[in-house]
Amino acid sequence: MAAPESGDGNNGAARMVTLISSDNTRFEVEAAAASLSQTLQLTILDGGGGGGDGIPLPNVDSATLSKVLEYCIKHAPAAANGGAPNATAVDRAELERFDNEFVNIDQSVLYSLIMAAHNLEIEGLQSLVAKKVADMIKGKSPMEIRRTLGFPDPTPEEQAEMNAHMLEYGWAYE
Amino acid sequence: MTAEASLGNKRIKVMPSGVAPVLPDEIMTEVFLRLPIRSIVRFRAVCRSWDALLSSEEFCNLHMAATESASTPPKLLFASPAANFNYSTALYSCSLSGRRDDLLFTIDDARGNFVDVSPAPCHGLSLLYDAVAPAYYICNAATRAVTRLPPFFEVSNATAGLGFDAQTRKYKVVRIFKGRHEAGSLYCEIYTLGGEDGDNWRPVSGGVPFRFCSFARSAIWYAVFRKMQPVFADGFLQWLIEPSFLPKRQGLLSYPFLSQKRPSAGSAHHLLLYQEPT
Q: Where is the F-box domain positioned along the sequence (chain B) (predicted)?
């Protein structure tokens, strides 16, 4: 029923949009995949990003954007099915395998990914990366967290507070 | 420490290796919501801003909601005499499938065989009653914090329950009891956790209305002799009433925690409102 030029999937050639990273690399991607981003969705619905225009993304560099798009392309078919209520168990297992593999990456990549997912408002990716970061930090001690975040060494006063906390909540440190 | 440092990717690259950029609070909250309570408690010691964020009521509510929607398997909370014979009570939590019980905390001077735990936690908190002291305790099984409530008028026939007022966002313990000497008199008093009235029990002005007295007596009877503690559900603290008080019906005495809310009266359940006069 939809007019061919506004259809974004099953009828013939899929509509493509162009995204431009902060370092001026152009990515051509299916509109359905890019629309996983709430931020981009409105622009795309308005007909933006087609032809030679492209949508500039000044907050996302090309390495991060290609990673983000890898996720979007993989998840777009399931998202088009409205969260895939009728997806087979195999499909879901395959997506899960992909997700696990996808976040198995260097910490610095993970951090730029979480920022990009947040800026582009890609819900599934936001929660996937947040879960990964949570898994990475959940077993760490407060001191390890401080070092990871590059905080200065605690002042004697702060150190005393940290020790007192550890005494009071010993069970949380086991 | 600024959020901007993490926004531009170029800035990330000049960071010393092994040092992660600081993420905005909004994103950190998303991460924290996916952490187990053990990590949350530990991370309060990282720095003051984390402590403020992780201790905030807003975060606690979000975390509770996230845990509920994640449908984590339920756990059993139970009290037992501690192994040291020192008149102390140990609180354990165990998962229904697990073989091991986790000791949460012990309360000194509370005698295990005489300690009742409220049937279900109310917004994360549980009410404990030590019949020997006697004393009430409020505990948080997740953070293992315990507070002993102030002394109250001691009688043998009393019942109390813990509820949560969603409007004032305060926990309240409602206690109904029979007077010691006058056989007919019933009293109701309230303790508000962190309330403006201070650390004490406040009698409900006007007492128990006459028309509810027989129901309240039945609620006390059930609680004392059948160990049927009231349950907080749907905005009401509800006591079961001895069926003979309401022929052919099941009965509940309920204490409303939201003044504008009305219970639905079903055919099987006859709900009685006992409203706190304000």
A: 17-62
What is the nearest CA distance from B9 to chain A, expressed in angstroms? 7
Nearest to B43 among A108, A130, A142 (CB): A142
The answer on B143 and B216 residing in a single domain is no
Do the Cβ atoms of A130 and B30 come within 8 Å? Answer: yes
Tokens of B18: 């092994």
B197: phi then psi, degrees, rounded to nearest 5: -75, -5
Of chain B residues 35-74, which have a CB less than 8 A from chain A?
35-36, 38-39, 41-47
Residues of chain A with pLDDT under 70: 1-13, 49-52, 81-87
Q: What is the ipTM of this complex?
A: 0.83
Give the closest-approach CA distance of B195 to chain A in angstroms.
Answer: 25
CATH level 2 (architecture), domain A16-138: 2-Layer Sandwich (3.30)
Contacts with A154 (C-beta within 8 Å, 6 or more apart), sequence order:
A146, A162
> Domain limits at B94?
73-148
Instruction: For residue B35, give every residue at least 6 positions away whose Cβ sits within 8 Å of its Cβ, in sequence order, or none.
Output: A134, A137, A138, B43
B61 and B83 assigned to the same domain: no
Residues B195 and B243 occupy one common structural domain: yes
- In angstroms, what is the C-alpha Rg of chain A? 21
Chain position carrying tokens 């409220």: B118
Helix, coil or strand: residue A120: coil
Of the candidates A114, A138, A142, the beta carbon closest to that of B35 is on A138
Which pair of structure tokens corresponds to residue A113?
Answer: 């990914």
Q: How confident is the model over B182-195, as pLDDT tens digits?
A: 666 888 888 988 87
Among the partner-chain residues B33, B36, B44, the one whose CB lies closest to the CB of A165 is: B44
| Nearest chain B residue (CA) to A63 | B9
Whether residues B32 and B86 fall in one domain: no
Parse chain A into domains and list their residue ranges.
16-138, 139-174
Has residue B146 got a pLDDT over 50? Answer: yes
Cβ contacts of A21 on chain B, cutoff 8 Å: none
The answer to whether residue B13 sits within a structural domain is: yes
In-domain check, residue B168 = yes
